[in-house]
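PT: before anyone asks, these are the final sequences, not the draft ones from last week. 294 residues across everything. Please model them as a single complex and drop the result in this thread when it's through.
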Amino acid sequence: MFIGEYRHTLDDKGRIAIPAKLRYSKIGEEEYWVATKGFDHCLFVYPKNEWNVIVKKLNERLTLTRKEDRSFLRMFVSPANEQTVDKQGRIVISQSLREYARVKRDVVILGAINRIEIWSEENWNKYREENEKSFDSLGEKIADLGL
Amino acid sequence: MFIGEYRHTLDDKGRIAIPAKLRYSKIGEEEYWVATKGFDHCLFVYPKNEWNVIVKKLNERLTLTRKEDRSFLRMFVSPANEQTVDKQGRIVISQSLREYARVKRDVVILGAINRIEIWSEENWNKYREENEKSFDSLGEKIADLGL
DNA sequence: GTAAATGTGGGGAAAAGTGGTGAATTTTCC
DNA sequence: GGAAAATTCACCACTTTTCCCCACATTTAC
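LR: through. Structure below.
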């Protein structure tokens, strides 16, 4: 399971190191990772097997003939990128993904149970500020989680 | 599985390179590809075997007597043409397809699971802008896929 | 305090993408 | 039917990008 918040840097070649704690978590020891556009202008990064579960579900439910389905496919699946980790534990973030998430150099990486999220530092700070304020009330709005 | 977003160029002869990641993906190593008109004014490009699957389905489900079926067949199957890749990994996009998708020089190529899509840059930017806005809410509609 | 692991930067070889030339084939026109 | 024009096709060449190493600084673990 992926948890934790990490500050890393993206180098000139678009490479970013996956935090060791995430890289070597059980769920994360895969041959490759898949990065794609996520909600709220961050990137979602899945280990191979988790990604495959999602695509399988999507394939069952999405149809070629429905407009919304095509849109979701193009927004979520098409931008995805398979990446093997290099010897230093890094993956490459493609240019279109970097643009989408507006990441330049300083990056925040979040563990999010079955995926990793990559945020530009600016976006993350803004998001965090906004949501910390309403954290308590937020708890009441979301579904009954049985906590 | 085809995934990824790529920016390529179409040359004066109508040739376009299939991104290497797509060309060499398992599903993509075929003798030839089939390009045809797709939804939303882009082009759909299938590897041989995937195209055959589509045609088989159409054959089973479309009837000669229904007006809409005939129309769909003529819009989707008739404009299709087979293309072998040259030594540089390119295929030729026929003029009528180029006109349909309004592609001139700058082109965006999308991996879309079992097909590839070719967009003119302008069309893609417009489509993306319109659909990115509703991406977050769209995700909710598609609902709990465990993303 | 020392050794190992982690994160960051960079260089060189290989692959990918693009543009172009000349031969072969097809089309057009008389 | 045959010659000229146009188009297509199969290579070749160049530029850019990507990939695979190696090196080093910093942090973590023992």
